[in-house]
Design a protein that fits this description.
Length: 303
């Protein structure tokens, strides 16, 4: 027979008051409920598609401010997994639907995020992708780490450029980009405040004339990342772990990526480090005029 004293002894087993822990547990449950209600309100404030809202109901999130595009990026996490949600206008030049298309095409070819969800609502596009673990390659602590990262950057770009383009669903070839640049100029969609300091005092019209003048006679078409800058390459434990931000991925000239990564290395590490990338990628006779063409052309697609 269990007596009242037995119950009392059980509640104070080994000097621990179990009533206290029951109360703590109840308080935690209440706090969790309040947190979920708060998260629910925050998620609803984003005006998400209904299906996406259901997926994210039990995630907490934080805003990520790395990157140059005007897309909103949120890091969503719970105790089991981490996702990233990208939100942008449907008609943005950083096209999330194109990114979704490229990511799905690359799923068995390169280390890229998995597409969890894509949808549209009220002229906004929503792309939910899995996390690639690692540290962005522009965060470095020493010159030795810079040198190692440059080897990884070169290795990664060679890997991207080796992907066969036969079935690639997106064409970003230079002639197509030239026409897009002309169209954007005619519509007044060029933001000169985003121009590199080298041509910040040149009008968009004059810059278009210059890029037309130096346009290469032929192209070296490869599969291209489209924005091969250091914040888009992830490194984990000294090895390449993956590539992100694929809204400009597709068929393009090799130098489109080279122009981006050379600028990014100079900006993040210092121009004295660019020569090591040339060595590691395997460039002997670098075409500086071709580089200039693509660096200027890229100015027409800033946002």
């Amino acid at each position: 027979m269990v007596t009242e004293a037995d119950h009392e002894n059980h509640k104070h087993l080994d000097g621990i008051n179990l009533d206290y822990f029951v109360q703590v547990q109840n308080n935690l449950k209440a706090e969790m409920k309040d947190t979920l209600i708060l998260m629910d309100k925050e998620i609803k404030s984003l005006d998400l598609p209904e299906e996406l809202e259901k997926i994210l109901m039990e995630f907490s999130f934080e805003v990520i401010n790395i990157g140059c595009s005007k897309a909103k990026v949120l890091r969503l996490s719970n105790i089991e997994q981490t996702f990233y949600l990208k939100i942008n206008k449907v008609d943005s030049i950083f096209d999330l639907e194109k990114e979704k298309t490229i990511l799905e095409w690359l799923s068995k070819k390169l280390e890229v995020p998995e597409v969890i969800y894509f949808g549209k609502k009220n002229e906004m596009a929503f792309l939910l992708i899995s996390e690639i673990q690692g540290k962005v390659s522009h965060f470095v602590g020493s010159d030795a780490e810079k040198r190692k990262n440059i080897r990884i950057l070169a290795e990664g770009l060679r890997k991207i450029h080796s992907v066969p383009i036969v079935s690639c669903p997106i064409d970003n070839s230079p002639d197509k980009l030239m026409q897009m640049a002309k169209d954007r100029l005619e519509k007044g969609n060029i933001d000169t405040s985003q121009f590199d300091t080298r041509w910040s005092d040149i009008s968009p019209e004059e810059l278009l004339k210059e890029v037309t003048r130096i346009k290469p006679d032929e192209y070296d078409l490869v599969f291209s990342h489209g924005d091969y800058c250091l914040p888009n390459i992830l490194i984990k434990e000294g090895n390449l772990s993956g590539f992100v931000d694929w809204s400009w991925g597709g068929i393009n000239d090799r130098y489109f990526d080279l122009a981006a990564v050379i600028w990014s290395i100079g900006y993040n590490y210092g121009e004295e480090w660019v020569k090591y990338f040339f060595e590691d990628y395997g460039i002997e006779n670098f075409d500086w005029n071709r580089l200039k063409f693509f660096q200027i052309l890229n100015e027409f697609f800033q946002q």
